[in-house]
Amino acid sequence: MSFLHKEGDPYVGVLVSGVCGKGECESQTRQAIQEEMFEVGAGAEAQVEAIVCAVCGKIEGIRKCGRCKAVAYCGKDHQKADWKTHRGACVSRDEES
Fold first, then answer.
1. CA within 13 Å, CB half, 49
2. Which residue intervals define the domain MYND-type in the entry (predicted)?
3. Looking at the domain assignment, is residue 7 inside a domain?
4. Alpha carbon of 17 to those of 5, 20, 24, 31, 75: distances in Å?
5. How confident is the model at residue 1, as a pLDDT?
6. What integer pLDDT is reported at residue 74 of this predicted model?
7. Strand pairing category for 72-73 and 63-64
8. Residue 6: inside a domain, yes or no?
9. pLDDT per position in the chain (97 positions), as tens?
10. pTM above 0.85, yes or no
11. I need a surface site. Which of 8, 40, 43, 46 has the fewest CB within 10 A?
12. C-beta neighbour count of 68 within 10 angstroms
């Protein structure tokens, strides 16, 4: 992507993903966005705006997954509800390296 902008200059990245409307599909899309932001090193402001419950989209009382930090939930009930979906992608940042 360096041919589009100078290294270190700010830029806007757009991630497009089809979402079928089912909770599982939306949850996977939200997780993919969080992971992409982590990889490109998005600024703290952008990361804070994107942290929402992976199940309901709520922004209050959000806590990130203790293992991967890539997805967040508003409570234990939503974390448990999303575990079947999230389990396959949940990898500790230490394990990725």
1. 6
2. 53-90
3. no
4. 24, 10, 14, 12, 26
5. 44
6. 94
7. antiparallel
8. no
9. 445 667 777 777 777 777 776 667 777 777 777 777 777 665 555 544 557 888 998 888 999 999 988 899 999 999 999 999 898 888 886 765 5
10. no
11. 8
12. 19
DSSP structural state of residue 27: H
Instruction: Quickly tell me which residue has 């929402």 as its tokens.
Output: 52
**Three-state DSSP class for 46?**
helix
Give residue for tokens 């990130």.
64
**Domain for residue 52, yes or no?**
yes
Taking Cα atoms as reference points, which of 45, 32, 50, 40 lies closest to residue 13? 40
- Pick the closest to residue 19 from 9, 30, 10, 4 (CA basis): 30
Q: Which residues lie below 8 Å from residue 28, measured CB to CB, with a gap of 6+? A: 85, 89
Q: Return the structure tokens found at 47.
A: 């990361």
Q: Strand, coil or helix: what is 68?
A: coil
Q: Is 73 helix (H, G, I), strand (E, B) or coil?
A: strand
Residue 67 placed within a domain? yes
In the numeric block, the tokens 């993919």 are attached to 32
- What range defines the domain where residue 53 resides? 23-96
